[in-house]
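Exam revision sheet. Question 4 asks you to relate a sequence to its structure. Input first:
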Amino acid sequence: MKGRGILWVVIVTACVAAIAWAAPRSVMAQKNTAGIGIFEGSGDIGTVLHKGSAEYDASKQSYTLSGSGENIWFAADAFQYAWKKVSGDVELTADLEIVGKEGHQHRKAVLMIRQSLDADSAYVDVARHADGLTSLQVRYEKGAETQQIQSNISAPKRLRITKRGDYYYMSLASGDGEPQVASGSVRLPLRGEFYVGIGMCSHDKDAIATAVFSNVDLVTGSARTPAQPTLYSSLETIEVGSPAVERRVVYVAREHFEAPNWTRDGAALLFNREGRIVRIPAGGGEVETIDTGFAIRCNNDHGISPDGTQLAISDQSQEEHHSIVYIVPIGGGAPRRITQLSPSYWHGWSPDGKTLAFVGQRNDDFDVYTIPAAGGEETRLTTAKGLDDGPDYSPDGQYIYFNSERTGTMQIWRMRADGSEQEQLTSDEYNNWFPHPSPDGKWIVFLSYEKSVTGHPGNKDVMLRLMSLADRKITVLTKLFGGQGTMNVPSWSPDGLRLAFVSYVLVQ
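Answer key, structure tokens:
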């Protein structure tokens, strides 16, 4: 009996050990508090089937991370992470090589700033995938779905993530040069201390993938602060019907530009910078200036005719620099004056191409007007006290959508194209600007500021929000740092699947 008891204990112990070995491994089981180079600890975050590892080669000053895990995405993560606990401002830079050609094309290596080691923690990272895709990813709160901004740079060698206050942005370099700002910023307030580090995910729960991080530089605390921060503008698009919020960068520059329009064939985007209208291929590329003759002080109120042959501009070159609406050929040419009175700011073109909608300041009041595209007399459509702005036609030409502060805060309205039946569509805690109907007439997108913000200034936390016209339900499309210049004018793609906008970064 005694021998059988010993045998039974041995069998039970072996079974328990086997079960434990086969079970998925979590961060609690895999956490390693031993230091590794500049990092304090490492371990597997979330649930993984195969134990990861983190090694430091002091002679090469490089880190080799091997990790399993299904993904760093959705509402929870699974990957190998080497980390250091910090607070305040931080910047992490590294050269990156994903080892080998085998494995999932979306296995990814990351530079990450994370609130906690929980699998569903809020975080921001710069993620480089094996296929070259590189993104700024963010989970805005614990357990929320991950969102991303995809860079237009493929397979960069050197990556950087920067946190300044509550704002984060990515910088990338294809070679050995200094990384350059490569996206707009995201805002994520973190509490107290948080984790900064490097990570690796195989994107396949049954596999392990490896990456090497070298020339790693971690800077904590406030960096040098110039008298004025440097502004970067990021031209982006976003898929409206995608289940995941995926923004894509088209063009980033160390300058101020604004207000994209999509050409009618979907091949290019137009925007204004330094008083000129420029064109860029929708997939990115070289920027080309459109000839607008003497009109070299164009503002952010411009748009393309329904047939794609003409461009309406609002220019401040004449008459004491008051804005005047002109039309030029889409390929460039001499401006033809439309509004005789100023200031006037173009905003919409009727679907039949015969009428322009604009905002005019007359006797100290800003109201919505229409005028024949061929020129002629202007017709005033709004008379309420307070600012009326941002008129844009519905695709059937029956309505004009606009924003008005006549009820105390800036809200979205619509009226018949002749100005009758003026109706308020939103009434909430935000100030809502610049409504733009989708090409199929089912949605309007608009820009929302916090209630405390007056006017439509730049460099503010704003949202692009989407309203279904069928039930008036409003959803948040994306959050960004922007405002004035983000989406002043119609910016839907012709197929109605994407929107173009501009976000901004203030670099210190």
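Marking note for examiners. DSSP finds two helices and 40 strands in the chain.
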